């Protein structure tokens, strides 16, 4: 399926009644599609997907369209939202340690590239900390530098290991055994279900970067 058809298919999954803060609705998306303004249509669909929880097929279709359009960050974001639709949302306020205090000396790409380890309170049979891997998406800014702070989203490699977390809990980020940063959990939302669809459940919207 080519990119216009993919965008049209995603648009059909968006309820007409939802609107962004700027009063953009799916009708506006159709106008951009008629004008072959595919990049703008994709961006607006992403924003509408942040207003109301939409099906997994919505995000997967958008991701495929973004990949065909060679929009790397949009494609990565839509794949990320596909993951969150299946597994739930974890958001946290992360502060990295200064370069003089940690292994990391440079900034990193915030678009889900980094896969650090996290101390979330799990223990090995011998009582030692059992670190868990989760990819990291930085909200609002494209890169995060040593000493920086931002809200982030986490995509655990093994989601069931993270089910005990709740708002206010403190976890630590590790790129080796030393602490690279400290994060305070902001929100935890369960995976999307058919019951949530009926209730209009929204599993967390992003701050665009």
Looking at CATH, the homologous superfamily of the largest domain is Translation factors
Please give the count of helices: 6
Beta strand count: 8
Give, in spatial order, the strands making up the sheet with the most strands. Answer: 1-6-4-3-7-8
Helix fraction bin: 25-40%
User: Regions with pLDDT < 50 over 5+ consecutive residues?
Assistant: 196-203
The shape, in one word, is: elongated
CATH class identity of the largest domain = Mainly Beta
CATH topology of the largest domain: Elongation Factor Tu (Ef-tu), domain 3
* Termini gap: 29 Å
Classify the beta-strand content into a percent band.
15-25%
Structural class: alpha+beta
CATH-scheme architecture of the largest domain: Beta Barrel
Mean pLDDT: 92
Series of H and E elements: HHHHHEEEEEEEEH
Integer count of domains: 2
Q: The biggest beta sheet, please? A: 6 strands, antiparallel, barrel
Rg over C-alpha atoms, rounded to the nearest angstrom: 18 Å
Q: Can you describe what's shown?
A:
The protein is an alpha+beta fold. The protein has 2 domains: 3-86; 88-189, Elongation Factor Tu (Ef-tu), domain 3 (Beta Barrel). It is 32% helix and 21% strand. It contains 6 helices and 8 strands, in the order αααααββββββββα. The strands form 2 sheets. A 6-stranded antiparallel barrel has the order 1-6-4-3-7-8. Strands 2-5 form a two-stranded antiparallel sheet. Helix 1 packs parallel to helix 3 and helix 1 (3-11) packs antiparallel against helix 4. The two termini are 29 Å apart. The model is unreliable at 196-203 (pLDDT under 50).
């Amino acid at each position: 399926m080519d990119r216009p058809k993919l965008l049209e298919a995603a648009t059909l999954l968006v309820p007409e009644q939802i609107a962004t803060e700027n009063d953009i609705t799916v009708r506006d998306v159709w106008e951009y599609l008629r004008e072959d303004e595919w990049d703008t249509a994709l961006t607006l669909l992403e924003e509408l997907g942040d207003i109301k929880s939409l099906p997994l097929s919505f995000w997967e279709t958008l991701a495929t369209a973004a990949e065909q359009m060679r929009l790397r960050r949009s494609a990565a974001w839509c794949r990320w939202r596909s993951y969150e639709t299946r597994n739930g949302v974890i958001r946290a306020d992360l502060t990295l340690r200064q370069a003089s205090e940690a292994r990391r000396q440079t900034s990193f790409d915030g678009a889900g590239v980094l896969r650090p380890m996290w101390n979330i309170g799990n223990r090995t049979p011998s009582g030692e900390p059992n670190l868990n891997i989760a990819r990291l998406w930085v909200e609002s800014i494209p890169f995060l530098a040593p000493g920086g702070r931002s809200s982030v989203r986490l995509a655990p490699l093994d989601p069931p290991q993270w089910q005990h977390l709740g708002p206010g809990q403190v976890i630590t980020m590790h790129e080796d055994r030393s602490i690279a940063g400290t994060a305070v959990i902001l929100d935890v939302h369960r995976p999307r279900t058919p019951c949530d669809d009926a209730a209009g459940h929204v599993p967390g919207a992003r701050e665009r970067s």
